[in-house]
Every structure is written in C-alpha cells, then in structure tokens.
Request: fold
Amino acid sequence: MRQNSSFLSPHSQETQKFLEPVILKRLQKEKRGQGYGKDYKPFLTVRDVPSKGRVHRRPAFTHNRIVHLLSDLELAAFLLVDWQPFVTDIREQFPLNPEATINIAKRLGIKHPAYQGVLQVMTTDLLVDFQQNGHHSSQAISVKYSQDLENARTIEKLEIERRFWEGEGIEWFVFTENEVPKTTIKNIRWLLPHMYSYDLNDIERMETFEGILQQLDANPDILLSKLLSELDRMQNLQAGLNLQYFRHLAAQNAFQWDIHNQLHTSLKAKDIRASEYWLIKDAEYVHA
Reply:
C-alpha cells in the first residue's frame, strides 16, 4: 500500500501550536509532501535548507520529475534506485507525520528535532515504491555519511524515524557511502546526462538504433568506443557522434549491459544487449 499523505492537513491544535506558520504553509497551502510520481512535491527543496556539500536538481528516469537532492550521497542513492526497472515511484524529502514523531519522541524520552525552540517536521530522504510479480512494496531510505552515525544526537533522530516507519509497516534502512557501488554509479553518471540530449522523431530514433545494433552484431569482440568511431567514419559523421547517440539511447534503455559489474570504458559489442521493446518497436521514448 502506498504511504498515505492525508495526515498533512489538518493538524490537531496541539501540533499546530508547535509548528511555525511557514511549515504549516508548506504542508497545507503548498501541499509539500503530497502527490505521487510527476505530481509529487518534496517537503524540502534545494532552496529551503543549507546542505553539506553540493545539492542537485535533476530529472528522474522513473517519473520524469525534477528531484531535489541535498548532497552527493543523496544523488548516489537516488541514481541506484532510479535505474531499477521495478521501481515505480521515488519521493524525496518525504515529511513524517509530526503528531506521530512527537509521540514517539515522548515515549523514548528523546528531544524532538527543533530549531530555535520550534519543533520541525522530520523527513525521510527517499521513499521508494516497487512493483514486482504483481506485488507492491515500499522502502524508506535515510541517507547519512558514516561519520555522522558516530554522533549520539543523529542516532536519536534516526531511532525516531525508524520507529515511525516500523509503525507504518514499511521497511526502513540507512544508506551510507559504504553502500555505494562505484562501478554502477560511474556507469549511470555516464548515461543519465544524455537522457534528453536529443529529441529524435520515430524514424530518426529507429534508424539510429538499428544502425548501431548492426555494428554491434557484426563486431562482437571490438571495443564499443572503437566500433562507434568506425561507424562515424563510415557514415561521414562528426567524430564521437555515434557514441553520443549510444549514450542517449542507452539512457533510454535501448541498450543494456551489466552496469553493476562492468565499466563503460571496457565494453565490447558482445557485452551489450538490445532491449526487446526496442526490437519490436514498442518502446517508450522520453522526449526532451
């Protein structure tokens, strides 16, 4: 069952007196933390909070919405789930019911997160929905650098968050830099910037796909970079153009390989497989 956001409005009088008007405005008028897919609005955006390191705004492969990620580590966690074909929705900076977290903090004897004496709405970095074999499930992911887990206050806040999701019947876990598979991240970063680098019509799209596929089938032991360079020469195109096309189409799932274990720089033609959907001309293409 999808996490219900109906708690966001209205709040009890007891809760409202603790929350700043600006927070209530985000929850109620701006409907932050509500919606699904492309219609979801994160409770926090890159403009709302200072962040450790760089922040990122980027389109999601899963639902084609601009997501707000508050650190490089959040970006890494997001890229991992966004690439999975069985992920149906990703909601970042998801707000937790303040009435529930306040009660949990009271039961545990822990101070609820506050700023200058004003209670804050707690958030979970990523709430991910999955659909596999007709079964729906969700996971809540808290993204933390491992050094932060040595801080007692951080552990207290994570325990409130853990108890909240336990009460919702949703699996929750902490994602640190130690969980980042570097090969996967390098491959995804190589591809995703090219998701919208071209906007090909139906004819252009299939001609480009089939031209590259013919080269792959005819030269199984050749490195991808050399193979596509030769295709540029054969087609009298600017050097590197077919490699750019390949990155674009692979980002659109036309071409696939074991991105978890093989880096793109070592790819040979035989390592790459064409999507069945593209082969039968039934693929969904994300237009720029």
About this structure: The domain at 6-179 is CATH 3.40.1350.10 (Trna Endonuclease; Chain: A, domain 1). The radius of gyration is 22 Å. Residues 112 and 237 are 61 Å apart (CA to CA).
